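Researcher: Let's do a round of design. I'm pasting the structure tokens now; please hold your answer until I've finished.
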């Protein structure tokens, strides 16, 4: 990533497979189809998995690399992370199969994308063994050096163990690849302009304390009733699946709703809605399921990716829902919309770990953590994280990141080349256009530089950390003692 060009060696076509974030999936696929050849569609989990063609972005000119392909399965963040930890595409994990429901659609997994940042406890499970995930996506990992006595199969991950990932694939890698605003959308017939909601209003709505669109608080914010004076009950809509979009949303409400509501149900940035409030929601799977439900439900309100609302939806061609987005008041008192520019402002003050102002490695600058700690590259799920309540002028209030989750060591040089090349592409102008058209923001230049120097290139001061992607068994790397790569 960043300004440095990366020369990718010619080789027979190599395909890498990933899974996770449904929010970023269409635009990750657009970028993959621009950078690489024969990447084709992305998948949406199901039996059989649905194949969705990502439309070409008319605002970029592409020259695909014919030796490489990048695949992605939009399973939702939780399933994607579990699949990376297990290094498995088992049916219960990804939920993406052939028509018979028995064969995973991908033969392997090399990376994940997650809108929900991994915590120190999550990293500890990767390194030391234990269980991560819940329900159908829960996987149990053995400790280093401990033999697997009950191996898991392609159709069963219950009561079994997967091999320890750090022993096989090297250190866990996690870093952001996009900055993502989460929109609040609604179905209020007759409302001709974007409905304004201040923090108190949307906190009370999503905590069940404002229950009608004709409530006096909403009327006052909008200079008159948004319903024309008629009662219209508010119907909450949310995600049924484990979702990074939910995590971004709940983290923000946990940060801002205290003191504004009688009871704040949102105590943490969880990937599912809290048990104390979930019964008040009608649930749907994925952003498309939420959009469909909002479209068909008078009075509905929901949180959703910004590419499903106006004006971004008209730029992408990825969907045709064309939903409205509420205008929200931020902590600075500004009224803002879910745009790439407003999301970029929300993230701008956050620095990468051990970096100078330009993102170069600075070993003694540890206020933002250590580059060797995967959790220090991302914002925590806690309500105290700076991104949970942006305070800059014109910053959009509900913002998170989509994060790359992967390994240090890969079985072939081809896989290493594909990942390095695509991440380098992700820091360029074409990727920036693809993201901004969807109201997602590219990372600031200091972050692109820090990621490039730490994980993509193997020169400069950061090379001493040995976190850059390498082939398993490669000499003079952290992978020299690892014989099995992803």
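Researcher: That's everything. Go ahead.
Model: Designed sequence:
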């Amino acid at each position: 990533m960043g300004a440095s060009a990366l020369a990718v060696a010619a080789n027979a076509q190599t395909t890498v497979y990933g899974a996770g974030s449904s929010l970023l999936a269409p635009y990750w696929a657009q970028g993959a189809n621009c950078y690489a050849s024969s990447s084709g569609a992305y998948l949406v989990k199901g039996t059989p998995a649905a194949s969705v063609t990502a439309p070409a972005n008319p605002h970029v000119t592409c020259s695909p690399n014919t030796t490489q392909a990048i695949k992605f399965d939009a399973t939702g963040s939780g399933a994607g992370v579990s699949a990376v930890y297990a290094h498995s595409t088992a049916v219960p994990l990804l939920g993406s199969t052939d028509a018979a429901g028995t064969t995973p659609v991908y033969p392997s997994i090399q990376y994940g994308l997650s809108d929900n940042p991994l915590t120190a406890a999550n990293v500890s499970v990767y390194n030391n063994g234990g269980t991560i995930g819940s329900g159908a996506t829960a996987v149990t990992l053995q400790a280093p050096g401990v033999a697997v006595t009950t191996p898991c199969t392609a159709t069963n991950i219950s009561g079994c163990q997967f091999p320890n990932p750090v022993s096989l694939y090297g250190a866990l890698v996690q870093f952001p690849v996009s900055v993502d605003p989460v929109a609040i959308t609604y179905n209020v017939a007759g409302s001709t302009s974007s409905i304004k909601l201040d923090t108190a209003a949307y906190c009370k709505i999503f905590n069940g304390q404002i229950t009608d669109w004709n409530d006096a608080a909403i009327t006052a914010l909008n200079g008159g009733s948004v319903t024309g004076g008629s009662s219209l009950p508010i119907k909450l809509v949310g995600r049924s699946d484990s979702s990074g979009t939910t995590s971004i949303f709940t983290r923000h409400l946990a940060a801002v709703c205290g003191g504004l509501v009688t009871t704040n149900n949102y105590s943490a940035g969880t990937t599912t809605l809290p048990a104390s409030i979930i019964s008040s929601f009608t649930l749907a799977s994925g952003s498309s399921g939420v959009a469909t439900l909002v479209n068909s439900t008078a009075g509905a309100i929901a949180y959703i990716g910004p590419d499903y609302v106006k004006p971004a939806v008209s730029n992408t061609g990825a969907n045709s829902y064309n939903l409205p987005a509420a205008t929200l008041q931020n902590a600075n008192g500004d009224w803002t919309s879910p745009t790439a520019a407003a999301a970029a402002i929300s993230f701008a003050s956050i620095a990468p770990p051990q970096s100078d102002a330009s993102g170069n490695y600075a070993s003694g600058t540890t206020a933002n953590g250590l580059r060797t700690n995967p959790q220090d590259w991302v914002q925590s799920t806690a309500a105290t994280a700076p991104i949970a309540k942006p305070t800059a002028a014109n910053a959009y209030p509900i913002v998170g990141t989509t994060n790359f989750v992967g390994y240090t060591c890969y079985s072939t040089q081809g896989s290493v080349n594909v990942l390095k090349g695509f991440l380098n592409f992700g820091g360029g102008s074409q990727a920036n256009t693809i993201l901004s058209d969807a109201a997602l923001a590219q990372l600031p230049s200091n972050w692109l530089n820090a990621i490039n120097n730490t994980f993509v290139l193997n020169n400069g001061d950061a090379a001493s950390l040995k976190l850059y992607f390498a082939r398993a068994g490669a000499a003079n790397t952290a992978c020299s003692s690892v014989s099995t790569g992803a």
